[in-house]
């Protein structure tokens, strides 16, 4: 699991070492429900979702298609009226004072469609800052830093419509952050970004959380982004929360039962067939002087059994590495569905 940008849990301490600040809840969702239709035709897109997020925490909201992620996030943002339940942001009940809540929240949903393509990049940042009640002139330094951060400084005076898909995505992100809100919701923030821009975005999100105590809730099918950025993961399935744990705990609950084995020379066809029939093997890679493959052990199987087969075939063992499960493995185990799969259509139709 990537650790390049990970930091200690917000439950331990805040970025300035203040344990009291670390425990301040800025987003509280309690028994959120959204039902479409009545009677036998009713669809429970969100069915009693509850979770809380502390100031400066980065939380991933994950789930297979139709799990209720989009409906949950839109209900929190006030874009969908929930059937039941409450949402509080910065201590304000969203149903009682939506305008006050809006001052604390920024959101990027559905990628590049968040911006006005006829406006220039700089004009978009100024517009969205002003829309949130911020003086664009006062926020100028912040906007310049965002343009530099996303390598958009040389595009500041160009209409967004003239930019590439990846650049439009960057503008959407910059515009979302232009207001400097307490809480930011991001849907697939790295979509369309190249590798370098994606890495820079992860660093910026962690910096915003660590140094500015901004709370970030993101939804993404990119498990590497979730692992490297998030403190916690809330997993939804069938409109309900089925897991709410630190990323480290979700990955750590699984003991290593997968190994990458490397032996000298080539493995004879009969031995390979024996291993394949007896164990789950994959990723066979025959090199010039060695053979490498991955093996996943079922209950009751042992690595010694695999090595005994190789030893009987006079294949010298060169290396064995344990393969740690990543968040995608955990997601599949918990939900039975791979992230981004269409196997669970329904609910909010994601």
UniProtKB/TrEMBL annotation:
<dbReference type="InterPro" id="IPR027417">
    <property type="entry name" value="P-loop_NTPase"/>
</dbReference>
<dbReference type="GO" id="GO:0005524">
    <property type="term" value="F:ATP binding"/>
</dbReference>
<protein>
    <submittedName>
        <fullName>ATP-binding cassette domain-containing protein</fullName>
    </submittedName>
</protein>
<keyword id="KW-0813">Transport</keyword>
<dbReference type="Pfam" id="PF00005">
    <property type="entry name" value="ABC_tran"/>
</dbReference>
<dbReference type="InterPro" id="IPR050763">
    <property type="entry name" value="ABC_transporter_ATP-binding"/>
</dbReference>
<dbReference type="GO" id="GO:0016887">
    <property type="term" value="F:ATP hydrolysis activity"/>
</dbReference>
<keyword id="KW-0067">ATP-binding</keyword>
<feature type="region of interest" description="Disordered">
    <location>
        <begin position="1"/>
        <end position="22"/>
    </location>
</feature>
<feature type="domain" description="ABC transporter">
    <location>
        <begin position="27"/>
        <end position="263"/>
    </location>
</feature>
<dbReference type="InterPro" id="IPR003593">
    <property type="entry name" value="AAA+_ATPase"/>
</dbReference>
<comment type="similarity">
    <text>Belongs to the ABC transporter superfamily.</text>
</comment>
<keyword id="KW-0547">Nucleotide-binding</keyword>
<dbReference type="InterPro" id="IPR003439">
    <property type="entry name" value="ABC_transporter-like_ATP-bd"/>
</dbReference>
């Amino acid at each position: 699991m990537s650790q390049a940008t990970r930091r200690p849990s917000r439950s331990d301490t805040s970025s300035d070492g203040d344990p009291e600040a670390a425990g301040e809840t800025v987003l509280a969702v309690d028994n959120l429900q959204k039902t479409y239709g009545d009677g036998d035709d009713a669809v429970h897109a969100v069915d009693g979702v509850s979770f809380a997020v502390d100031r400066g925490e980065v939380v991933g909201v994950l789930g297979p298609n139709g799990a209720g992620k989009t409906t949950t996030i839109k209900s929190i943002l006030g874009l969908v009226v929930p059937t039941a339940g409450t949402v509080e942001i910065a201590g304000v009940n969203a149903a009682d004072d939506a305008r006050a809540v809006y001052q604390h929240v920024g959101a990027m949903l559905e990628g590049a469609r968040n911006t006005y393509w006829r406006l220039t990049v700089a004009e978009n940042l100024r517009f969205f800052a002003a829309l949130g009640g911020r003086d664009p002139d006062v926020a100028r330094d912040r906007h310049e830093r965002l343009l530099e951060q996303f390598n958009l400084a040389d595009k500041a005076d160009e209409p967004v419509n003239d930019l590439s898909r990846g650049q439009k995505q960057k503008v959407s992100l910059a515009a979302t952050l232009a207001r400097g809100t307490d809480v930011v919701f991001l849907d697939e923030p790295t979509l369309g970004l190249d590798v370098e821009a994606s890495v820079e975005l992860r660093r910026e999100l962690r910096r915003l959380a660590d140094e500015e105590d901004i709370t970030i809730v993101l939804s993404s099918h990119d498990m590497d982004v979730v692992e490297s950025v998030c403190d916690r993961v809330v997993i939804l399935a069938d409109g309900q929360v089925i897991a709410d744990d630190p990323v480290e705990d979700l990955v750590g609950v699984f003991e290593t039962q997968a190994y990458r084995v490397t032996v000298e020379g080539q493995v004879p066809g009969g031995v390979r067939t024996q291993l394949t029939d007896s164990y789950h093997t994959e990723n066979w890679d025959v090199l010039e002087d060695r053979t490498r493959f991955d093996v996943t052990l079922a209950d009751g199987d042992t690595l010694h059994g695999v090595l005994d087969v190789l030893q009987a075939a006079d294949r010298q063992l060169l290396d064995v590495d344990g393969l740690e499960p990543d968040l995608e493995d955990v997601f599949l185990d918990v939900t039975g569905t791979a992230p981004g799969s269409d196997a669970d259509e329904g609910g909010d139709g994601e």
